[in-house]
Amino acid sequence: MTDSTLIRWIDGQAPSESSGGTTWGMPFARGSVAGAEALSVTDAGGSTVASQAWPLATWPDGSLKWVGMALPATSSPSDFYRVASDGAAAPREASQPPSGGTSVTVTETGTVLTVDTGTLQMVIERGGSTLFRSLTRGGVEVARDARLVSLLQDGLADDQGGDGAGTFSRDAFTGEVTAVVLEQSGPVRAVVRLEGQHRPDVRDSGISRDSGKESWLPFVVRFYFHANARSVRMVHSFIWDGDADRDFLAGLGVRFTVPLQAELHNRHVRIAGADGGFLTEAVRGLTGLRRDPGEDVRLAQVDGRATPPLAGWNPEVSERLHLIPAWNDYTLSQLSADGFELRKRTTSGRAWVGISGGTRSAGFCSLTDTHGGFGVGVKDFWQSHPGQLDIRDAAADHATLTAWLYSPEAQPMDLRFYHDGLGQDTFEEQLEGLEITYEDYEPGFGNAHGIARTHELTLFAYDGTPATESLAADAAAASAPALLQATPEHLHSVGVFGDWDPVDRSTPARAELEDHLDFLFDFYAGQVEQRRWYGFWNYGDVMHTYDHDRHVWRYDVGGYAWDNSELSPDLWLWYSYLRSGRADIFRFAEAMTRHTGEVDVYHLGPWRGLGSRHNVQHWGCSAKQLRISTPAYRRFYYYLTADERTGDLLTELVDSDQNFLGLDPVRKVRPDADTYRPNRGALGVGLGTDWGSLAATWLTDWERTGNPRSRDRLLGTMADIGAFKYGFLTGEALYDLDKGRFDTGRELLQVSHLSAVFGLVEICSELVDLVPDPDFERAWLQYCRLFLATKEEQVAAVGQPLEGIYLTQAHSRLTAYAAARLNDPDLAARAWTSFAEGGEHLNHESAFTLRTIEPPHVLLPVDEAPTVSTNDASQFGLAVIQNLALIGNHLR
Length: 892
Description:
Elements: E1 3-9, E2 22-27, E3 39-43, E4 48-49, E5 51-58, E6 64-71, E7 80-85, E8 94-96, E9 105-108, E10 112-116, E11 120-125, E12 132-137, E13 140-153, E14 170-185, E15 189-200, E16 216-226, E17 231-239, E18 248-259, E19 267-272, E20 278-282, H1 295-303, H2 315-318, E21 329-336, E22 339-345, E23 353-358, E24 364-369, E25 372-378, E26 387-392, E27 398-406, H3 427-437, E28 452-462, H4 468-479, E29 484-486, H5 488-493, H6 508-530, E30 546-547, E31 552-553, H7 569-580, H8 583-598, E32 611-612, E33 624-625, H9 626-629, H10 635-641, H11 644-652, H12 659-662, E34 683-686, H13 689-705, H14 708-723, E35 732-736, E36 741-742, H15 760-770, H16 774-787, H17 791-798, H18 808-822, H19 825-838, E37 851-853, E38 862-864, H20 870-887
Antiparallel strand pairs: 1-7, 1-29, 2-6, 3-4, 3-7, 5-6, 5-8, 9-10, 10-11, 11-12, 12-13, 13-14, 13-18, 14-15, 15-16, 16-17, 17-28, 18-27, 19-20, 19-24, 21-22, 21-26, 22-23, 24-25, 25-28, 26-27, 30-31, 32-33, 34-35, 35-36, 37-38
Helix pairs in contact: 6-20, 7-8, 7-20, 13-14, 13-15, 14-16, 16-18, 18-19, 18-20, 19-20
């Protein structure tokens, strides 16, 4: 029997072209598909399409749970596709090469890899200072010697004088590749992974080399190739490993050499501005002159076509070509989210001439001639400012094009902690500080060493100068890549990610709650824009709490500033996307996943695998915990897109239980601090935020790799929790790191309002259905049933009332879960009552309205929701989503 699943374009319609191919992830029901070779793809007309499929995760029975799929590039994408399965294949990667078409081929030698999509060819050396040696299309080399570049500055001018004057040195570095791995080899998709670090660049003369730093900024670059593609996707990730007190990143970019053959008047510069607009110029312009070369000459140059032979020109122009300036250098700088500047000059040492400016550049430029050329687009260019695009030596035989991911014209990056500690040298003083600014400070912990950042670029190989309309489409595709996705109905039907249902407005009560969910997402999306939550390290995050007196979010008040996944906005957004399939929600969640997984988490050093709690700076808080780094927030994006970089982040966390040896997450408030001594056999691990994060880590790794260590630790600790006298109500258990098991003899009784609001609810829901363990299920049901129970019910069950019961609305979904599992209408009624009563502000209509504040009370007009902070939004959203899925039939 063959089943098929509809796969749609996330933006609602097919793109005009798929120049680079497409990749996505999709799930299948337990036991329905044995392996990837059972899968095939057809287009809207029913014709089979070349495809490639590979496992991303399996169910415990070994059947396929999640699969990555890829289609080749095409000039005419189908309106939709269908993925069919006969369910009978063995579990291995599978592919259907293009019928009568072209496949991606990879040729390896001891020194290079050559990848051929059928349209372009890239030669990658196995080591050295280049990311690739050459990029060729149609036998013409369009780019060569791609390399990473960075600038290190040893100080900031404004630290040396009130007028901003001062002296400092700048050192040039270039990326040195130390490892090249072919991760996928086609026939539809190939992936090459490069690793390395930046080393001093001895070729860059005139720049000081006094830093003494031999290397810094370890990086990973991946190139993605699809059959027939004329573009290559590039994903660049780096880790900040500098000393914040003396190392100031003054520039970070990717530089390409572009060979040029044609005459200067047949060399074309194209740079994207805002709203689809383009700068369309030639290195030597023929328009606007005092003498007219001829209409056919002018139109050819503007269109990017070869101009007629000189003999056919007006001789008043052709004989004076040498007197027309050649514009050698171009720059677009986007130093904020609201403004870019374009300028050009004839050569180094001559003045720059302003061209124009605008608001938000698409982050694309190309340099081509009539023989071929090269273009690059940077995703989230203005959102991740300061960025810059440089073209240099366009009048020479070999020009350079640099996509600056951090502009050298911006203030050098300053990652020092933002205050001097305020005398908080002891735990007691730090806890006092927590009482006033909500900032968990500790000397030395506000350190950015080990955070990371990922950028996505698209590299285009041209066989000439494309029409401007085609370039505009390329720029748009690089900014917002087209993506195929399964429908919410399919995602729900196969039983992934626990308790949720597709959007349902079938009753007035449901419709009202759906409206409230839409309001909250639209509000936060609007706040990102109005409050300008953009920038290199900030884009993707939101703020924690609002200050109604100043009409601003509390950006400068300790732990009330950047949210850093506090109370799981990541989960709220991803579940909102699963339910709705909305592209705007997906991209909002995508940006948050990129940010929280990279910037809010440490990727090297003593806190590797831990994340930082909310703070004025993303890395500022001394609470370095698994609740921020948890895969529970990242695995949605990994499974829905098959993104290898997110896979790296998940892999980093596999041994995160080791972190409890070096850093006790509750060291400042531990009641047994006088006697607790962490050791491999008795590590204090909380059963809420800690174990929930570990369980998400082990589950994800087991599903992805079959790792027996992760499987055994997950199943073993589940059994141990089921064996505790008080189950999850034990609060904290002693964990044996070597055995991966808890000491089941502990009879502690404690709860926390934070235990279940960082992914524990969602993970436990999945685990109960995934792996049968009656004792674990009993323990989880007990926790869900008692958390919001009456004091009398709690005493009857465990001998005493539970303390620390807050966030009632958020925890109403615990009661809802118990109601659904036990089929108890009284519990269902209590859940909805708790939801309404516990909402505080979010239980009446006035909470879902906006008022607009105008200058002079604010810098720019902004909207306020009278009572909303991010914790209200995320936990309200999750409570609504899960309550509707579990006990929606009890909603009145």
